[in-house]
Each structure stands twice: as structure tokens, then as C-alpha cells.
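Checklist before submission:
- one chain only
- standard amino acids only
- sequence pasted in full

Submission:
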Amino acid sequence: MAKLSTKKILLFILWATIGTVVLVFTVQAMNKQREKTCRGYDIDIAGGSDNWFIDKKDVLAVLSNDGAKVIRGRSLKSFDLRVMEEKLEKSPWIRDAQLFFDNNEVLRVTITEAKPIARIFTVTGNSFYIDTALQRLPLSAKVSARLPVFTSFPTDKERLGSADSALMADIKAMSLYMAKDPLWMAQIAQVDIMPDRKFEMIPTIGRHVIEFGNGQDYEKKFRRLLIFYKDVLSKTGMDTYSRINVQYNRQVIGVKGGHAAPIHLPAPVRDSAFSRSTSTLSAARVNTANTEKPPIDPRPATNRKPNSGGKKNPPAKSQSYETPAKPLKNQATSTDNRPKAVMPKRNPIKQ
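Returned file contents:
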């Protein structure tokens, strides 16, 4: 038993000695490392879109306190990397910052830029971007992002109520959907927010207004609009209808000459059909890069006229475009002054 206890004591002393030696060498190595100087820096900006709202000069200005401190040649122990990261992340355009020194004493700076997804104009005329986290981003003097534009957002407050938060979520979903298709980006010049929080779209080509409704089932609504463009307007012309309503399931309601005509869609098509449509729609590939100027018409949509290209639209006599319970017959000889809807042959589709 005495020999066993002695052996345990010797092993304990041995491991304690080894641990002490390792700790001493580690401390010496750290001190030696801290006595080294920075040999340079490398800044990498990643994770953003094609629109760089910050550049390496901006990052370097923060790291050097606008030139008050040098980077190259400074002692490594004089760098507080945590504080420098926090200072960089105070910029609204920087989502994340990571700093470290590599084995060659080079300061590595990795910046993840915030990604804007939409530009918003409020009812007061103020403008800002939002990112995927629905955080507001300021405008930049360097570059203007080509993004979906929404006008007449009901408040300037950053802290939103439940209704405005739901509206902002709809804007995010619709913006991400539109950004995936270059033709939607080219054709939809701006999206106006109505007082009842529904959307109306102003196209780049065509003298019509698109009544989109709320953000619910937005994918199906874009699909109905796609079919209508491909199978109707590509044949009749983009200026045939003054208003196009895609709110209701399986049909598009067009206002032509003051008359609302519910049009049942002929057949389902894939989303990619828009890119294979006629040359009329292909002409939508125009330069629609957004600028920091106000949208086409920042006034409330109720006071706004469709994009007429210099021509006036005939006044629409109908203000109601709800789907009738039964097909209405053509009552041209009736003394009733209300618009008469002419129903084409039903040909429903599956959504």
C-alpha cells in the first residue's frame, strides 16, 4: 500500500511539473506574440449584393479613427479587436465584422454587408431601404440600389404597430419574389400602398393600373397577372385596359372603357412563361435602374393617374370590380347606367 501511495504522489508531481512548464511556455509565447507588430491588413467585404454601400476606405477609416491611428507597424497588444468589431458594427450597412491576426501578423478584416431588399417612401416623402431582417437602412450617396419601390407607407416611426408590421412583412415577401424575375423588376415601376393597406402597381409598359389587393396569396396573383399579360394583353395591346384587378381567385377583372369585365383565365402556365412571352413583353427589358429621386408620383395613389406616356386615359365609370355571383348578360338596351360585365366562356384553372 505504501508503494502504491508513493507511486501516485510521484505521478501527481510529474503531471504538475509538466503542466507548469506548458503554462510558462504558453505565457512566454503569448507575450512574445504581443510584442510583435502588425505587418499589414487585408479587408474583405462579403455577403452583400452587387450594390456596395461601403468600401475598404470606409472600413479603414473606422479602424484607424479617420487616420489618427496607424495600422501597419503598431504593436499587436495595442489592438483591441473586440472593440474594433463593435465599432464597425455600429454602421447600419455592416451586419457583421470579424477581426483576427494570422500567423504572419496580418490583420484580417471580414465584413458582411447588410442586404437591402426594397426601397420605401412614406406618406410624408421620407425614403429608406429595408433589409431581410426588416431593419431600416439609410440612403447612400455612393450608389442607388435597383430594388422594388413601395410608396405611401403609412408611418415614419421605426417602432411599428401590428398592422404596419404585417404590411412590412408583405412588402418583404413581394420584394423577394419580384427580385427573382428580371421581367417583373423591369415591368413594375412602383407599388403604391393604399389607405386600406392594399397594393396598386404602376407598370413600366402600358397605361393601366394593377389592383393587387393585399399581400395574401401574392404568388397566385402574380401568376394570374402573368397569364393575363401572356394570353390577353400580348394580343390586344398593353393599353387596352385602364385597370387590371388580380385580387380574386381564378379570374382577372379588366376595366375597359368604364366597363368591368371579369375574365376567366384560360389555362395554367408556369412562372417561366413570362420570359417566353411576346416581343411586347420583352420590350419591358428597359433600363429601370432606380435613382435616389422620388418615384414616378409620390402623391397618394388615390390622386395618382396611371403612367399614360403623355396620353390621358378615358375615365372609368365603375368603381366596383367584385366578382358577380352569376354571369351577367349583356344589357346594352337597359336603362340602368351601371357598367355591364360581359362574361366570356368559363374555363377555370387550378391554382
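Reviewer check: The first helix runs from residue 2 to 34.
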